Amino acid sequence: MRCTFSCANTGAVAVMTSGKNDKGPTVKPTCRYPKRRTGPPGGPESKLERLKSELERLKLALNLGHELRVEWLPGQVRHFHGKQLSGEVLDGTIHIYERDEEKALSTLRHEFFDYAVCQVIEPYKSIANKLISAMNEEAYQKKEKLIERLSTLKLPDEDADRGPPNERKPSRGC
What we know:
single chain; alpha+beta; three-stranded antiparallel beta sheet; three-stranded mixed beta sheet; 3 helices; 8 strands; 18% strand
């Protein structure tokens, strides 16, 4: 009898044969260490692959963010408003700075959802900014017209109202 086994963790393959000898079944490994695409289990490459896989799952679940990709930069330090960042989205890339894999996954989800919400509110933000800009321009134009009118105003000469220099009374001011 001949059976083939493969290890779920390492992918190693072994063949077990059973014959009519007294020694019982024998196991002969055919490939002790198969080639891995992602490096050793738990290594940096496999963690990045897990982040990429999670990002793809999120994209499919929400059907958005298909343009995003993820970069894992463990230990890189970035600050915003005096606080250290765990991650951020820059130019279509979610940058993850957490070293711990579970924290990195949590940060990926947080940044993806933040990106998704920002995409929804962006049109409203754009309209509000255009409205503010238009109102600022209108206020500026009104201010300039008022300044022009004020600069052409003929104001009475204060010295003429007080009489000749030797008879002047002190001004009371504001």
